[in-house]
């Protein structure tokens, strides 16, 4: 077309065609002189590619098998349960057989190098087996641009309520990344809603995340990069979640977060206020276990915390990490307390809550730790004889200030870890309890499948005979044997067995949280309200609303179809 024709305003799409252009019938007759060139292809390879990678428009979502693997803390485990529940509610089958799955959902932990190594190896194995992959947890949230994560779908720690969207797009062959934060009027929220469907790993235990993130800036911590600053859930939402759990047969609740003691400081409340509200709704025979709390945030609530830990439906148990008994090391860690603060907390609680179990964490070989620093830590363990002690060899995590400090030699770190472990195993914390009569809550089966696992008032592990009538019940036992990490109890023949649940527990693998509001499609996704959905009675499968990613695709498809229709009409008119 001459360039002059571009100077005039086009009033209609037909103005694009000038009288000098060839007509459709002219182009048709020219085709007789065109000789098509045949390109040979590897038929076997083509068929194999077709079989392994069907076109995305031929993939029906909601029917595939998904294998979920979670590493790390109870907060991470709770996230994994929520993701499993949503996928199952949508129709996906959650399988425990990794090789049988179509997609692997890998929920990672970034606390230590070995956990990330397992995560990386699992990605490699999934790729070797041609599995679809979705990544979750703290590793991809903190460092999404790592080389081994390239091209893979990622769902952020605050976006787990959108796992169905990410899985669907991944199954279709797309790569999706959702890493944003949830906010309400500029204020960061605790994360996804608490009333989402979930599949509890143990139907008798509900894990509730009371907040995400923390107020600290520990120099060794990578989790801070993923979970961010403190963001707490409102008390009423946490209480509602607890009530719903008990209605579904739960008999034990774990409160979890990166720092339970800091709960509420961002929303004008505190941990004791939450706990007093929760104990009001705990039925007789059920128990509440508190999560980890750092020393600074419990010091100002010691009196109230002692009262709560003495409550008959709250385990007299608290996890307070000390990390080191050297003030100079704690200063380099930026832990915001000294050893005297830790001792004050422990001594006060041991006095006011007789028999309380104090669990703690220790890092061996932090940068700059001297032999004298380490010996101070050894003396602390010898003095308090912690019945539960988590000993960790220091691993420098990329991107943390501690990784740039002068490191303690690897062999020294390893030796200190062994030495402290030897001290820990030198004492027996439960020998003096042989002959006691205790009430224990039975919640699970032991790893060797020989016993049921129960916990007494102080959250000490008690193994009892495998009587199905005991599971989920409060049973009275006589302690007749003890080990380093457990006691064994013989049920008292004429003792009363308490049934704490107000309803029958869900079956293993059954979806929790399919509330009436959820089924009727009230609320909207992505906020602290009920998700919209409805139940397809013909297929007995939960049909969720069209995800936002799909809404965008649908809009683009509608526009594209309209343009195609317009072009088709234009060419038909020209041809005629």
Automatic annotation (TrEMBL):
<dbReference type="InterPro" id="IPR006466">
    <property type="entry name" value="MiaB-like_arc_euk"/>
</dbReference>
<keyword id="KW-0808">Transferase</keyword>
<dbReference type="GO" id="GO:0051539">
    <property type="term" value="F:4 iron, 4 sulfur cluster binding"/>
</dbReference>
<protein>
    <recommendedName>
        <fullName>tRNA-t(6)A37 methylthiotransferase</fullName>
        <ecNumber>2.8.4.5</ecNumber>
    </recommendedName>
</protein>
<dbReference type="GO" id="GO:0005789">
    <property type="term" value="C:endoplasmic reticulum membrane"/>
</dbReference>
<comment type="similarity">
    <text>Belongs to the methylthiotransferase family. CDKAL1 subfamily.</text>
</comment>
<dbReference type="GO" id="GO:0035598">
    <property type="term" value="F:tRNA (N(6)-L-threonylcarbamoyladenosine(37)-C(2))-methylthiotransferase activity"/>
</dbReference>
<dbReference type="InterPro" id="IPR002792">
    <property type="entry name" value="TRAM_dom"/>
</dbReference>
<dbReference type="InterPro" id="IPR038135">
    <property type="entry name" value="Methylthiotransferase_N_sf"/>
</dbReference>
<keyword id="KW-0812">Transmembrane</keyword>
<keyword id="KW-1133">Transmembrane helix</keyword>
<dbReference type="GO" id="GO:0046872">
    <property type="term" value="F:metal ion binding"/>
</dbReference>
<dbReference type="InterPro" id="IPR023404">
    <property type="entry name" value="rSAM_horseshoe"/>
</dbReference>
<dbReference type="InterPro" id="IPR006638">
    <property type="entry name" value="Elp3/MiaA/NifB-like_rSAM"/>
</dbReference>
<feature type="domain" description="TRAM">
    <location>
        <begin position="431"/>
        <end position="493"/>
    </location>
</feature>
<feature type="transmembrane region" description="Helical">
    <location>
        <begin position="554"/>
        <end position="575"/>
    </location>
</feature>
<keyword id="KW-0411">Iron-sulfur</keyword>
<keyword id="KW-0819">tRNA processing</keyword>
<feature type="domain" description="Radical SAM core">
    <location>
        <begin position="200"/>
        <end position="431"/>
    </location>
</feature>
<dbReference type="InterPro" id="IPR007197">
    <property type="entry name" value="rSAM"/>
</dbReference>
<keyword id="KW-0472">Membrane</keyword>
<keyword id="KW-0004">4Fe-4S</keyword>
<keyword id="KW-0949">S-adenosyl-L-methionine</keyword>
<dbReference type="InterPro" id="IPR020612">
    <property type="entry name" value="Methylthiotransferase_CS"/>
</dbReference>
<dbReference type="Pfam" id="PF04055">
    <property type="entry name" value="Radical_SAM"/>
</dbReference>
<keyword id="KW-0408">Iron</keyword>
<comment type="function">
    <text>Catalyzes the methylthiolation of N6-threonylcarbamoyladenosine (t(6)A), leading to the formation of 2-methylthio-N6-threonylcarbamoyladenosine (ms(2)t(6)A) at position 37 in tRNAs that read codons beginning with adenine.</text>
</comment>
<keyword id="KW-0479">Metal-binding</keyword>
<dbReference type="Pfam" id="PF00919">
    <property type="entry name" value="UPF0004"/>
</dbReference>
<dbReference type="InterPro" id="IPR005839">
    <property type="entry name" value="Methylthiotransferase"/>
</dbReference>
<feature type="domain" description="MTTase N-terminal">
    <location>
        <begin position="64"/>
        <end position="172"/>
    </location>
</feature>
<dbReference type="InterPro" id="IPR013848">
    <property type="entry name" value="Methylthiotransferase_N"/>
</dbReference>
<dbReference type="Pfam" id="PF01938">
    <property type="entry name" value="TRAM"/>
</dbReference>
<keyword id="KW-0256">Endoplasmic reticulum</keyword>
<dbReference type="InterPro" id="IPR058240">
    <property type="entry name" value="rSAM_sf"/>
</dbReference>
């Amino acid at each position: 077309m001459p360039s002059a024709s571009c100077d005039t305003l086009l009033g209609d799409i037909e103005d694009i065609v000038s009288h000098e252009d060839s007509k459709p019938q002219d182009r048709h007759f020219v085709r007789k002189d065109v000789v098509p060139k045949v390109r040979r292809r590897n038929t076997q390879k083509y068929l194999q590619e077709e079989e392994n990678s069907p076109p995305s428009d031929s993939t029906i979502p909601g029917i595939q098998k998904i294998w979920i693997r979670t590493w790390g803390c109870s907060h991470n485990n709770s996230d994994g349960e929520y993701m499993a529940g949503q996928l199952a509610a949508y129709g996906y089958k959650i399988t425990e057989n990794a090789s049988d799955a179509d997609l692997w959902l890998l929920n990672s932990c970034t606390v230590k190098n070995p956990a990330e190594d397992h995560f990386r190896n699992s990605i490699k194995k999934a790729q070797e087996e041609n599995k679809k992959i979705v990544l979750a947890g703290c590793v991809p949230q903190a460092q999404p641009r790592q080389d081994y994560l390239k091209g893979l779908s990622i769902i952020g720690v605050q976006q787990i309520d959108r796992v169905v969207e990410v899985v669907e797009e991944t199954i279709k062959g797309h790569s999706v990344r959702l890493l944003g934060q949830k906010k309400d009027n500029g204020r960061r929220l605790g994360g996804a809603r608490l009333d989402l469907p979930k599949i509890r790993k143990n139907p008798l235990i509900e894990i509730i995340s009371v907040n995400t993130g923390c107020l600290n800036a520990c120099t060794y911590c990578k989790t801070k990069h993923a979970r961010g600053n403190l963001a707490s859930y409102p008390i009423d939402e946490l209480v509602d979640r607890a009530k719903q759990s008990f209605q579904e047969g739960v008999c034990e609740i774990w409160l979890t977060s990166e720092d339970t003691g800091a709960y509420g400081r961002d929303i004008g409340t505190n941990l004791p206020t939450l706990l007093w509200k929760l104990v009001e709704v705990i039925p007789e025979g059920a128990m509440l276990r508190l999560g980890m709390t750092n020393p600074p945030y419990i010091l100002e609530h010691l009196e109230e915390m002692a009262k709560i830990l003495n409550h008959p439906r709250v385990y007299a148990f608290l996890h307070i990490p000390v990390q080191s008994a050297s003030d100079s090391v704690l200063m380099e860690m930026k832990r915001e307390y000294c050893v005297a603060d830790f001792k004050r907390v422990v001594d006060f609680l041991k006095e006011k809550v007789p028999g309380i179990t104090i669990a703690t964490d220790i890092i061996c070989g932090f940068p700059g730790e001297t032999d004298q620093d380490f010996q101070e830590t050894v003396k602390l363990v010898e003095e308090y004889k912690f019945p539960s002690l988590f000993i960790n060899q220091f691993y420098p995590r990329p991107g943390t200030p501690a990784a740039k400090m002068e490191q303690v030699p690897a062999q020294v770190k390893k030796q200190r870890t062994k030495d402290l472990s030897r001290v820990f195993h030198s004492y027996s914390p439960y020998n003096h309890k042989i002959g006691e009569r205790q009430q224990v809550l039975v919640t699970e089966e032991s790893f060797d499948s020989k016993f049921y696992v129960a916990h007494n008032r102080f959250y000490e592990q008690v193994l009892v005979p495998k009587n199905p009538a005991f599971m989920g019940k409060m049973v009275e036992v006589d302690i007749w044997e003890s080990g380093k990490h457990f006691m064994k109890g013989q049920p008292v023949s004429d003792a009363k067995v308490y049934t704490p649940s107000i309803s029958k527990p869900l079956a293993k693998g059954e979806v929790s949280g399919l509330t009436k509001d959820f089924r009727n499609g009230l609320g909207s996704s992505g906020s602290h309200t009920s998700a919209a959905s409805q139940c397809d009675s013909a297929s007995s499968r939960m049909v969720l609303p069209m995800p936002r990613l799909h809404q965008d695709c649908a809009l683009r498809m509608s526009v594209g179809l309209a343009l195609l229709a317009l072009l088709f009409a234009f060419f038909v008119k020209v041809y005629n």
